[in-house]
Design goal:
Layout (H helix, E strand, L loop, with lengths): L19 E8 L8 E9 L2 E7 L9 E4 L4 E4 L1 E6 L19 H15 L2 E6 L6 H10 L7 E4 L3 E3 L4 H4 L4 E3 L3 H14 L4 E4 L29 H13 L4 E5 L2 H9 L4 E4 L7 H10 L2 E3 L2 H7 L18 H24 L18 H9 L4 H7 L2 H6 L16 E4 L16 E6 L2 E4 L15
Parallel strand pairs: 1-4, 1-5, 6-7, 7-8, 9-10, 11-12, 12-13, 13-14
Antiparallel strand pairs: 1-2, 2-3, 5-15, 15-16, 16-17
Length: 448
């Protein structure tokens, strides 16, 4: 059984009254098919009705938009972020942040994501109800933002990370507590279940004390026991929900693969176990590499590559683990790609900057993923990994999440970080962002 994800329940948004013919496009359809020139795409009632050539001409009764040779592609799917609203630090003495303000801050980010072509995101754990509140507000048509899938609280054991990320985990011990924790997330409206198969590289009493002589934490043991993880998968799958694994140490990765979890988040050291990568490919288990959080923990912020200076972010021990993780993740990315493992974009950008996708795309390419494959990871592969079968490609019948950019994203992946290169963004066929919709103040009121 597979459930209709709560994030995809009917949304009360206005849709375009007339079909739209998007013509004269350079088309990246979200698959391994090469980009082609001179394409046309018909959008009707929120979905893609036809994909053809510009030379076909506009069907009768449609609005025609000439894209002028710009690139048309599917909306970007960011498969790993923590949807935490944040407000600026205004200094000592300022009024304390009110309870609902962080929810508004998250809503502002979800709106901004559209401006960078990110139409869908997967929340991998946050605090309170701000994700649920924003998702509900979008469903009721109160604002447009990137649609958001969420795990609710992360199913963990009683562990050091539960202290560092107080309020993000549902600590469970024993099969009965695990089962109840899973049921609680489903009751809250989770789209999937996330489990801590291992501890985290950001917690000194987990990764910091599991370092070997090379500062690698590949030997980090499983956090929840195999029996507890089996219970989580059994209960979630019984109810029609997928399970995904935070898995860094190889022991947790192996159990997650044994239990056929949907995605492996991080998986830095999998290059050491090529047979596990082969099994992931056979079982259609996706890898979400998450370079960006490792760069942050290593004090490298928005760098691409590890030749630049660093600034302390964590403890010295965790800084060293993060540096090793970047190098290990590069080897795993290349080995996974060679083995045919599905790879999905997951920015894991702690500050949710520009949708978190742009910098992760560049880093995946820098660390060895071919540019075209990085775009596939950001669209169809990510959508497939999330169980969003109506998204991710430009083909008839799919939901019309469409991004139009100035330039060739395969040759210029850096364009994803420049909001002025996003000419038009459609979500469910409706125009929601892009420079084509923005009118300079100097033009307001000017006679046509």
């Amino acid at each position: 059984m597979e459930v209709q994800l709560p994030a995809m329940l009917f949304a009360e948004h206005d849709r375009a009254d007339r079909p739209v013919w998007l013509t004269n496009a350079r088309l990246f359809d979200g698959t391994s098919t090469p980009i082609r020139e001179g394409a046309g795409v018909l959008v009707e009632d929120g979905r893609i009705a036809r994909v053809g050539s510009a030379g076909d001409g506009a069907p009768e009764g449609v609005d025609t938009v000439d894209l002028g040779g710009r690139t048309l592609m599917p909306g970007i799917v960011n498969a790993h972020l923590h949807a935490i609203g944040a407000v600026p630090d205004l200094g000592f003495g300022v009024q304390p942040v009110l309870p609902g303000t962080l929810g508004h801050a998250l809503g502002a980010k979800l709106r901004e994501f559209l401006r960078y072509g990110v139409t869908t995101v997967r929340d991998m754990g946050t605090y309170g109800d701000q994700v649920m509140e924003n998702r509900q507000a979008m469903r009721y048509g109160l604002f447009r933002g990137a649609r958001i899938l969420t795990c609710g609280l992360i199913i963990s054991s009683t562990a050091p990370g539960d202290v560092i990320f107080d309020g993000m985990y549902r600590a469970t011990d024993g099969n009965d507590e695990v089962r109840k924790g899973v049921r609680e997330q489903i009751r809250r409206g989770a789209d999937f279940i996330k489990v801590m198969a291992t501890g985290a590289r950001s917690v000194e009493l987990e990764a910091g004390i599991n370092r070997d002589e090379h500062d690698s934490a590949h030997g980090m043991s499983e956090q929840l026991t195999r029996a507890e993880l089996e219970t989580a998968v059994e209960e979630a799958n019984r109810m029609g929900y997928a399970v995904v694994a935070h898995a860094e140490g190889l022991a947790g990765c192996e159990i997650a693969i044994d239990l056929n979890m949907r995605t492996i988040e991080h998986g830095f050291y999998l290059f050491q176990r090529p047979e596990l990568l082969e099994r992931m490919a056979e079982q259609d288990i996706a890898l979400v590499p998450t370079f960006s959080s490792q760069y942050v923990f290593a004090g490298r912020d928005l760098q691409v590559g590890t030749d630049g200076p660093t600034e302390r972010f964590s403890t010295r021990e965790l800084d060293r683990v993060a540096e090793v993780n970047i190098a290990a993740a590069e080897r795993t990315l290349q080995a996974a790609h060679a083995a045919g493992v599905p790879i999905a974009l997951g920015g894991d950008d702690l500050e949710l900057r520009r949708g978190g996708a742009w910098i992760e795309i560049r880093r995946m390419i820098h660390h060895g993923l071919p540019a075209h494959d990085a775009l596939v990871a950001s669209t169809s592969a990510a959508a497939h990994a999330l169980g969003l079968h109506d998204l991710g490609t430009i083909e008839p019948g799919k939901i019309a999440d469409i991004v139009v950019v100035d330039g060739d994203p395969v040759r210029e992946p850096e364009l994803f970080g420049d909001r002025d290169r996003f000419w038009l963004v459609l979500q469910e066929g409706s125009p929601v962002a892009g420079t084509a919709l923005e009118v300079p103040l100097s033009e307001v009121g000017r006679a046509s």
